[in-house]
Amino acid sequence: MKENKLLSYIFLTIGAIVAAFALRSLLIPNTILDGGVVGISIIINKLSHLPLGLLVCIINIPFIYVGYKRLGKVFLIRTLYAMILFSIVLELLEFLKPITDEMLLATCFGGAILGIGVGTVIRVGGAIDGTEAVAIVLSKKLNLGVGSIVLIFNLFIYSLAGTLFGLDRALYSILTYFITSKVVDMVSSGLDQTKAALIVTDKGTSLSKEIYKQLGRTCTLLNGRGFISGDKEVLYCVLTRIEIFELKRLVSNLDNSAFISIMDVTDIIGEHIKSSTKKKNYIKTIDYFDK
After folding, report:
1. What is the pLDDT of residues 142-178, one digit of tens each?
2. What is the pLDDT of residue 285?
3. 252 Cβ contact partners less than 8 Å away, ≥ 6 residues apart
4. Taking 70 as the threshold, does the pLDDT of residue 214 lie above it?
5. What mean pLDDT value characterizes the chain?
6. Which of 82, 181, 209, 217 has the highest local Cβ count within 10 Å?
């Protein structure tokens, strides 16, 4: 379960370059917007001619800070690396000749290539755009899904784009967003944003504490028995795609012999622990079982 850090940074590099290439060669020349922070940056760039790469870095700062508080130091380092590289490549490719001025081709292929780049970065534990990390935090407070919050945020951006650049550009941007989202989901390991993890381990209680401390996700502890390995503890945890890498890292650090299975979740009924009182009770409960 040990990861190859060099390989991870190679993929971060490839993902950031591919995403920047898609924007400069297909989307931006045709005034087709990405969502999130990048979309806001493109709008400001079109209106003010400020450097796009610089705008992406500056606007992303508060989003990445929230993501760091939520997802930890590894997420921060990898996201900073991917975002800075992405911003630099955006500037280096500023004068790149557009591949096509055919809107439908630019929309479909631009969205797909952008999705490959962004999905590659997410797969190895980073991010180019901090919107989704903030959406994870807001979802706990607003009782809305991560995907719903991101969609609402992006619809606001596309409405603004329609007002400034024309309705057709907004519609092409929305189509690009859906194409990009599907490709990101496939590349980053799944078709749904919500995932479920089954973890077979010898250290169920300590793992559940660390997962709750670092990710804010509660785990259901089950007793299991391996045919060869004997008695085991099984944790069941529901999380989002962007948290999968951090979960794997936490489990690997605490029990590198643990077995993890990631599954798609199509629907969730009920809610996670949200209030501070419930959180304290949960901690007291697992402390009790430790004794």
Report:
1. 776 666 777 888 889 999 989 999 999 999 999 998 8
2. 43
3. 1, 2, 3, 258
4. yes
5. 82
6. 82
CB-based burial label for 126 (10 Å; 0-12, 13-18, 19+): buried
| CA dist 179 → 20, 31, 34, 39, 46 (Å) | 17, 17, 11, 15, 23
Gyration radius from the chain CA atoms: 20
Question: How is the chain split into domains, by residue range?
Answer: 5-187, 194-290
The answer regarding whether domain 194-290 maps to CATH 1.10.3720.10 reads no
* Cα dist from 54 to 41, 42, 57, 89, whole Å: 9, 11, 5, 11
Global confidence as pTM: 0.69
Rounded Cα distance between 120 and 114, Å, is 10
* Contact between 210 and 265 (Cβ < 8 Å): no
Q: What pLDDT was estimated at residue 132?
A: 72
The structure tokens listed for 193 are 């944003």
